[in-house]
Amino acid sequence: MRSSLRNPYIYILFVVPTLGLYALFFFYPMLTSVGYGFTDWNGLEETNFIGFANFQQAFADSDFWNAVRNNMVFILFSVGVQVPLIVFFAILISQVRRFQSFYKTTVFVPSILSTAVIGILWGFMYDPEVGIINQFLGLFGVETIYWLADSNWALPAVLVTNAWQWMGFYIVLVLAAILSLPKEINEAASIDGAGGFRRAWYITVPLIKPIISVIVMLSIAGAMRVVDIVLVMTKGGPVGATDVMASYMVNRAIRYGDYGYGTALSIMIFAIALILTALYQLTFGKMRERVEF
Amino acid sequence: MKKYGLLLLVLMVSLTTVLAGCGGNNAGQGSSANTGANEAGGSNEVNAGSSGEEAVVEDAEPFTVSLRHIQIGDAKKYRKAILDDAVAKAEAEVPGLTFELDGVEDEVNRFTKLPAEMAAGNPPKIFDLFGGEGDALKYANAGRLLDLTPILEELGLADKFLNMGQFTLDGKAYGLPIGGSTEGFFYNKQLFAQYNIEVPTTLEELEQAAETLKSNEVTPMAMGSQAAWVPLMLANTLIGRYAGPESIYGFRDGSAAWNSPEVVAAFAKYKEWVDNGYFTKGELGVTYDAMLNEFLGGKAGMMFDGSWRASAFANPDLVKEITSEDVGYFAMPAVPDGKGDQTAVNGNYSNGYGFSSNLNEQELEAVKAFIKHLYKDDMQVRGLLEDALLPSMKLTDAAASEIEANLEDPVVKQIMGTMNEAGEAFSHFDSVVQSDVYSETEQQIQRLIAGESSPQEVGDALQQAQEAANAN
Amino acid sequence: MSTIFNRTIPHLILLVYVAAVLVPFAFVILSSMKESNIDIAERPFGLPETWVLDNYVTAWVKAKINVYFFNSVYLSVTSSMAGVLLAAACAFALTRMKFKRVSNWLYQIVLLGMLIPGNVLFIAQYILVKDLGILNTHWSLFFPYTAGAVPLSVLLIAAFMRTIPNELEEAAIMDGLSAIGLFARIIIPITMPALVTVFIVNFLGAWNEYLLANFFISKDALRTLPTGMVGFRDAFQTNYALICTGIVYSVLPVIVLYAFLQKQIIEGVTAGSLKG
Q: What are phi and psi of C176, to 5 degrees?
């Protein structure tokens, strides 16, 4: 009677296509990466096994560690600046009655656009001559800033663009969590009356800890993954100021033909991702006991 | 004979179905089918003489040949037109042939697409290629490029080229330069007249001109350093001046050092100009096109660029304040204490086309037709007249007199005049040094501009990279 | 008094945010109809001196945006569809069928994939698609997109399926449904909200993807919107009005689609994350 749920053939039929594809395009590349990482393969010449030489080189490669540092800035910015703002705006939207769906719809828009198009659009916004940002700052007497050309400004400029793209998405996530709270709580947390926003914040935030933990995780994962926006806007420049791990790795492999070294770097990136995951589990992960992910 | 014709037909049909089946894939599966066609073609030659070729002509089975070019955008439309003409003629000559043109931005092709495709072993059949150690010779060494020597013999082009050095490995030709170029200063005659600036003949006068322009809030030299090869043009010529024309070739064989006082002096001069504000502000974010735009817009007095840019001044599609009449050209002046011939100018025959070594019979025919129709006198003449591209081939007297009679572009005339006065020509180091070293120069010049490395540090880092590359 | 005050302030703050979202679009649309860079530079928010619509014709002809757009749509739809179906089948087997121990192992292995940032595999995947002979075809993107979406998709769908009460399927099996019938007729319809979510998340992922698309495809006719647009920008770097037109073309259809489906899109995405 219940045997059909015990039929191993059907089980295999259901599981194998998915896991097969996953294994071929995910696990197999992972394994070959480990293999390539120990070679000097460059696609053109004979390939030799060179032991840990690539990893030694990586540890001494200041450009790579500069990229790692930039990635960390991405993470810190996402978690330290974006997340509080996301929660702030989500609470604010949850409190207004009029135009609520208008706000929700509008803030979400950037997250459905393609990163490459956003990169082009913001490259135009930052343009020193025709770009609107300098024009706007010019009104306050700020001198032209060469956003994407200045080593000091390029990374913040890319960070802002990235935030512009993704914040709305997270705001909508948090908003949904707030709106799904029992009605009484939202009423108690109303920003009307004395105490206003502070009270709303203190009542709401503890109740949405699980979703905050989720967006922290998604932000970290997103910041680790970031590469498109960098490649489109600055290609990692000027002088590596916006290079992130992935863009540096891709660049080494494709442009320099150092495929062996590039895969070694990707193994390092994976290791760093594991360390971050562990750190996350020890900190924010604990907030999530109610959420099974 | 019929039998083989039929066999070939069957093979070609199966080839096209394979191609259609995988959505126009000409990589992996395509190449296995190619091998099949090659074998059939080979056995044809042995057994049945020319029947293979005849079959191709008679059956005219449609086939496509991929062609990667870099002639995209308004500034390169003349070059594209010449390419289109050659393509059309070759298509008309080889039945069934269609070229599949794929236009990619120059730098993206040279530094991203082509290297990846070469490593993967699936470059387009015909592609834009740069000469030198880092490009053509590297790929030729790895067996990726078609040896053109027999084709050149067949077409009678074997000694028609002025300079094939950057495409020649062990006496075999692996690429064909489409034109020649030199690099120097373009200047805006209107602005020079407005501020009473004479055409500089010494370094001092050049710097004086820059000061004058700067004090009048005009950018002295338009510069787009987002892509590092652009500032490297100027750096190359400065090295040629300070360390002598021979030094450019000396890095590879060890007779010149990047951290020698002369080369460092060249970088120091570059740095001095950066610090003095002679270049476009925020140059590290300025693209090559934007640099041209600044000059065309009359916002910069000078621009150090390649001779090929002259066609942009006559191009009506580009929005601009000046015409070719307003543009002058002069070579880098002599520098004090410079080594070697101070009248030498940069001269390159480094950009052209290369061909995949993985071709079947048909594709080989297509390549031959392409070479035949692109590399000939009238195209070379058009290249110069329409596109300011200096000839890369020895021209017949008829072609030379056609040029003489029809060359009206004032800028091109000045460039040619400047070249005639030059004592000798030196190459660009990008075609001399290994690709690892070249990549390092790209990083270092940007570090120099950004103020993160001193001229001495730049020289030391480059010498270190050079020694590492020479040791391999 | 303070109530009015309290009610206005949030709107003011939110309007600043809304402006930050919308201003770039307004800037791009206005710029796309201007004749020259000078017109853009001098009056960024002024209406064009002369309204130039030529850009729209030129961009359409020069940029092949219709081709890129079609490629993007069909790749994103097919790969997310395939991803959803595969993940649903897998999640069903893992959560509802009676092979608990194997399932637990497999589930953990799939979850392991969540730890791998996708682009780490870039080089190895490049070699893989090259070896499979699908480099420079849409398959070279279809498979990595579909496979890359597996971990999160299985995770979300499995979480949803675990909440389906056992009684339901017992009843269904009583009625004589096979495992496949149970999956197709009962589980899929019930799981639909989760499937929609996963579809949307995967769709956006594939729609946005740039890195693989840039390196695995070199034929113009096969390019997707992100890479096609970057190529277009590289070709017409300084013609800002033309580039803006390209941006408008590539953004407009998405915005229109979003205007109609915003409820489904937003609900899908949020429901998914909350369930997870």
A: 95, 15
Residues in chain C closer than 8 A to A103 (CB atoms) = 14, 17-18
**How close, in Å, is residue B109 to chain A by CA atoms?**
10
In chain A, domain spans: 62-288
Judged by DSSP in three states, A258 sits in: coil
CATH class given for the domain over A62-288: mainly alpha
Question: pLDDT tens, B267-301?
Answer: 999 999 999 999 999 999 888 988 998 999 899 99
DSSP-based three-state secondary structure for B150: helix
Give a yes or no: residue C48 inside a domain.
no
Backbone angles phi and psi of B346, in degrees to 5: -70, 140
The residues that bridge with B129 in the sheet, in sequence order, are B352
According to DSSP, residue B307 is labeled G
Sequence-ordered list of residues with C-beta below 8 angstroms from that of A136, at least 6 positions apart, any chain: none
User: Chains A, C: CB contacts under 8 A, how many?
Assistant: 303
For residue B372, give both structure tokens. 């035949």
* Cβ neighbours of B290 in C, within 8 Å: 237-238
The model's pTM is 0.84
Cβ contact, residue pair B100, C219, below 8 Å: yes
Among the partner-chain residues C119, C147, C229, the one whose CB lies closest to the CB of A26 is C147
- CATH number of the domain at C117, please: 1.10.3720.10
How many residues in chain C? 276
Contacting partners of chain B (3+ CB pairs under 8 A): A, C
Per the DSSP assignment, residues forming a β-bridge with B128 are: B353
State the ipTM, two decimals: 0.84
| Residue contact B119–A238, C-beta within 8 A | no
- Digit-coded pLDDT (tens) for B2-46: 333 333 333 333 333 333 333 333 333 333 333 333 333 333 333
Rounded to a whole number, what is the distance in Å from the CA of A15 to chain B's nearest CA?
27
Q: Which residues of C touch A1 (CB under 8 A)?
A: 173-174
